[in-house]
UniProtKB/TrEMBL annotation, chain A:
GO terms for biological process: signal transduction. Keywords: Membrane, Repeat, Transducer, Transmembrane, Transmembrane helix, WD repeat. May interact with RGS9; this interaction stabilizes both proteins and increases RGS9 GTPase-activating protein (GAP) activity, hence accelerating the deactivation of D(2) dopamine receptor-mediated signaling. It comes from the Eukaryota. Belongs to the WD repeat G protein beta family. The gene is LOC109893795. This is G protein subunit beta 5. The chain crosses the membrane at residues 12-32. The keyword Cytoplasm does not apply. WD repeats lie at residues 96-137, 186-227, 228-271, 272-313, 325-357, 358-390. Gene3D superfamilies: YVTN repeat-like/Quinoprotein amine dehydrogenase. It holds the Pfam family WD40_Gbeta.
UniProtKB/TrEMBL annotation, chain B:
GO terms for molecular function: GTPase activator activity. The keyword Methyltransferase does not apply. The keyword Transmembrane helix does not apply. One of its GO terms (biological process) is regulation of G protein-coupled receptor signaling pathway. Residues 433-472 are annotated as: Disordered. Residues 32-107 form the DEP domain. One of its GO terms (cellular component) is cytoplasm. InterPro entries: DEP_dom, G-protein_gamma-like_dom, GGL_sf, RGS, RGS6/7/9/11, RGS6/7/9/11_DHEX_sf, RGS_DHEX, RGS_sf. Keywords: Signal transduction inhibitor. This is Regulator of G protein signaling 11. It comes from Oncorhynchus kisutch. Residues 301-416 form the RGS domain.
């Protein structure tokens, strides 16, 4: 016996036009079920949310399947024809002492020798790392200054932390002038500031926060230019893409996701979720075609943006503690990782092997950056110091022959 | 011991992913087949069973993970610092000694991951026991904590003392070896959970982070709808085969190998090693003759050329010869618009229109009619990104056309020929005498000078050519 009576058909067409899809399906169920209850149009808020989450998870699985389809070879396989690197010895060239507490963040100036660093006790110091002189110092009104950045012009620094703000301090050379007097509050979040970076000029700042969002700000007016929603938990790090059109950046968070964003539209362009714990640091590969991430799951990973997938994992069974910050050498051949077990591990990006493990810090390494011209790298630690290191002994065995052979010891 | 409720520490436990990994190492160490060989260790006159020496730990780690002794010592040291292995001799010093000092595995009951955060009640009982057992056994900071707790949880103090007495009585029934072991285990646990103020605190985690389970982000319908939309878009995305993408990494590292100071060193020397800043002075923006490496780099990509101010200058000279300099000028003006102050946007858009887009403009740029139409329409409501389309069009025009021709031009070839290859600095005859490290003008100085009009306070870091004494 067909239940498609003309009356039912009319009801159905009416329902189709009047009700939202979810109510319709329930409505239809009610009509065709043998239960005698009245059809209800009310949807429990809980159900819709569960359905949405389930749908999202299904799509994510489908996406992973799609991504796997074009993965025809592993990075270390392609890298078989490249020469191995042997072991590297890195030497500490400068130790910067002056912070009275844990160093949380640092950034290089474009002049390749100055750096700004921030610490738990609210101190932000600008050093000429080459001479180890302190040039400026300012005390923030909050503790745990987790983010700091040098302006491209070298004339200002930005910093923030538990105050939920990002402030810009113009660097004055007048020794008597109090830097704090000229302080400019730029960004306002509803939770701690985890990272900040100037874009191509001193006029805009990109921030990430414990409130789960990233934001782009106009420095002059403090105006919010764009906000980026999509992370499901605290955002811990960000990095700007060195691409030709210069319009994207990547962020990593406690939701184990790394998201690539379009700065102009605020949309999330690509998303990667393969880490097993918080992502503490993200950094673009020099060409802009990929980025690396460091996580509490004790691995660093490489994600290719054109292949749209994770392409390498850098880990070792003996490395148990999380990677807090990562950066590439200038050619992208080496990946430096600062870890929470006080060490720095240096990886051969192509082969996936470790070429060096560096000791020296007496507490976790919280921040690590290569200098702008790649001549050295600086690490900051909870042991209150910063160390500038570079290649030590270059033995003939490991040194690639080239027109600029250098027998440096 | 009282039962610990760990709901509060939930988010923190999630953070301590590494604790689970350490536990896996510990379990592997105790594996009957592949684990360490343990034996009885003598502690004064008592024999403690199932103990190992510091050396044993290090040897095992070297074998198992194929690492150097230095790394094994470091890893073993962390296991002790986190309380998974504790020393029998000198128990207050949580260090791994690479000799025959005896160590034992901490019982899982006292693992950092199982009993964290430590409760005040448990701590009070522990201190009470110590106090009862031997007068004056409490160390200074423990005495302080004891009196603080006494005030704070005074209402349960009877229970505390009763528990302490009960536990002491029970332990007296045990064999001496077991009693010592239990005391050591408990002590190790408390050394980590309630360290001496000022001492290293391994459980110091920094500001609390929230992950998905306790998120501050509203995981509401909008959030999931956004995720769904994103996944749908992502599904339709064009992807490139891995084999092609990964090849490009090989090429890139090879191309930039000699430009990477950590891989190949730099000439004349790395300033951080030799204390000689020549490498920086010969690579400044204003230098008369650039280095060969620098000029070579301009040929790697159009972006490399534009990112170098000298390269950009040279390219401009070339374009002027070709009567297409307006393209680069336009691109520069658009960059300035995109990255400049919000307040100057309207003004800048007007300028760009006047100079480059208006019919009959002095430096009219040739963009396709569709883009031009769209841009002119958008100018009516100017914003930061209004020139994006036009800028990209001109960028790719220069990249495809002018840039390759520039690289083949006499201008570029001469530049390359003229470019200097610095001589490698010979290691100084007296290597122990370090050169003096000179200061450099702060970038902030340059702008300040132009602002202040040569104020008297110009005796900043540069005024005195401060030859700072080398510091270790």
């Amino acid at each position: 016996v067909s239940i498609y009576t003309p009356d039912l058909q009319n009801i159905l067409s009416l329902l189709f036009f009047l009700l939202p899809a979810s109510a319709l399906t329930t409505g239809i169920y009610m009509i065709f079920s043998t239960k005698p209850e009245m059809a209800t149009q009310e949807i429990q808020p809980n159900e819709t949310l569960t359905n949405l989450k389930a749908e999202s998870d299904t799509l994510k699985t489908k996406l992973e399947d799609e991504r796997a389809k074009l993965h025809d070879v592993e990075l270390h396989q392609v890298a078989e024809k490249v020469d191995g690197l042997g072991q590297f010895i890195m030497k500490t060239r400068r130790t910067l002492k002056g912070h009275g507490n844990k160093v949380l963040c640092m950034d290089w100036c474009k002049d390749k020798r100055r750096i700004v660093s921030s610490s738990q006790d609210g101190k932000v110091i600008v050093w000429d790392a080459f001479t180890t002189n302190k040039e400026h110092a300012v005390t923030m009104p909050c503790t745990w200054v987790m983010a700091c950045a040098y302006a491209p012009s070298g004339c200002a620094v930005a910093c923030g932390g538990l105050d939920n703000k990002c402030s810009v301090y113009p660097l004055s050379l007048d020794k008597n002038e109090n830097l704090a007097a000229k302080k400019k509050s730029v960004a306002m979040h509803t939770n701690y500031l985890s990272a900040c970076s100037f874009t191509n000029s001193d006029m805009q700042i990109l921030t990430s926060s414990g409130d789960g969002t990233c934001a782009l700000w106009d420095v002059e007016s403090g105006q919010l230019l764009q906000s980026f929603h999509g992370h499901a938990a605290d955002v811990l790090c960000l990095d700007l893409a060195p691409s030709e059109t210069g319009n994207t950046f990547v962020s990593g968070g406690c939701d184990k996701k790394a998201n690539v964003w379009d700065m102009r539209s605020g949309q999330c362009i690509q998303s990667f979720e393969t880490h097993e714990s918080d992502i503490n640091s993200v950094r673009y590969y020099p060409s802009g075609d990929a980025f690396a991430s460091g996580s509490d799951d004790a691995t660093c990973r490489l994600y290719d943006l054109r292949a749209d997938r994770e392409v390498a994992i850098y880990s070792k069974e003996s490395i148990i503690f999380g990677a807090s910050s990562v950066d590439f050498s200038l050619s992208g051949r080496l990946l430096f990782g600062g870890y929470n077990d006080y060490t720095i591990n240096v990886w051969d990006v192509l082969k996936g092997t470790r070429v060096s493990i560096l000791f020296g810090h007496e507490n976790r390494v919280s921040t690590l950056r290569l200098s702008p011209d790649g001549t050295a790298f600086c690490s900051g630690s909870w042991d209150h110091t910063l160390r500038v290191r570079d290649r030590g002994v270059i033995t003939w065995a490991t040194f690639p022959k080239g027109p600029h052979s250098q027998g440096e010891r | 011991m009282t039962i610990n409720t760990l709901t509060k520490g939930g988010a923190q436990r999630e953070q301590m992913y590494c604790l689970r990994k350490m536990e896996r190492v510990i379990v592997a160490m105790q594996d009957p087949d592949m684990g360490m060989k343990m034996r009885n260790q003598r502690l004064l006159i008592t024999v403690i069973p199932h103990a190992m020496t510091g050396n044993d730990v290090i040897e095992w780690l070297i074998q198992k993970y194929n690492i150097t002794e230095e790394e094994a010592r470091h890893l073993g040291g962390l296991l002790v610092q986190y309380g998974y292995i504790y020393p029998l001799r000198e128990p207050r010093s949580l260090l791994l000694r690479s000799d025959d000092s005896p160590y034992r595995f901490q019982t899982p009951y006292f693992w950092t991951s199982s009993r964290w955060p430590a409760t005040e009640l448990d701590y009070a009982i522990y201190l009470a026991k110590k106090n009862i057992r031997k007068q004056g056994e409490l160390v200074d900071y423990e005495k302080e904590n004891y009196s603080i707790l006494h005030k704070r949880i005074n209402h349960t103090w009877d229970f505390v003392v009763m528990q302490a007495r009960e536990q002491l009585r029970a332990s007296k029934q045990r064999r001496k070896a077991d009693r010592i072991v239990l005391e050591c285990q408990e002590q190790a646990y408390w050394l980590i959970n309630k360290p001496c103020p000022g001492a290293f605190d391994v459980l110091d985690l920094g500001p609390e982070r929230c992950n998905v389970l306790s998120s501050r982000v509203a995981l509401n319908a909008d959030h999931y709808r956004r995720e769904i939309e994103h996944s749908r878009r992502a599904l339709g995305r064009n992807r490139v085969k891995s084999s092609i993408c990964l090849e490009s990494f090989m090429k890139y590292s090879e191309q930039y190998l000699h430009h990477d100071p950590i891989m190949s060193g730099c000439l004349p020397s790395n300033p951080w090693i030799s204390d000689d800043t020549s490498h920086w002075t010969i690579n400044t923006d204003m230098v008369g003759i650039p280095t060969r490496l620098r000029v070579e780099r301009w040929s790697f990509s159009f972006m490399e050329l534009l990112n170098d101010s000298m390269g950009r200058r040279e390219f401009m000279i070339y374009l002027e010869k070709e009567f297409s300099a307006e393209n680069l000028c336009f691109w520069v003006a658009c960059e300035d618009l995109r990255h400049g102050e919000s307040s100057k946007i309207i003004l800048k858009v007007e300028e760009v229109y006047k100079n480059f887009l208006a019919p009959g403009a002095a430096r009219w740029v040739n963009i396709d009619s569709k883009t031009m139409e769209r841009t002119l329409e958008g100018i009516k409501r100017p914003h930061r990104f209004i020139m994006d389309d036009a800028q990209m069009h001109i960028y790719f025009l220069m990249k495809k056309d002018s840039y390759p021709r520039y690289l083949k031009s006499e201008l570029y070839k001469n530049m390359l020929a003229k470019a200097i290859v610095p001589q490698e600095t010979k290691k100084s005859v007296f290597p122990f005498m370090r050169r003096q490290r000179h200061s450099s003008p702060s970038p902030a100085m340059v702008t300040q000078a132009t602002e202040d009009d040569g104020k008297a306070k110009g005796a900043g870091p540069t005024g005195t050519s401060s030859t700072t004494n080398s510091q270790i």
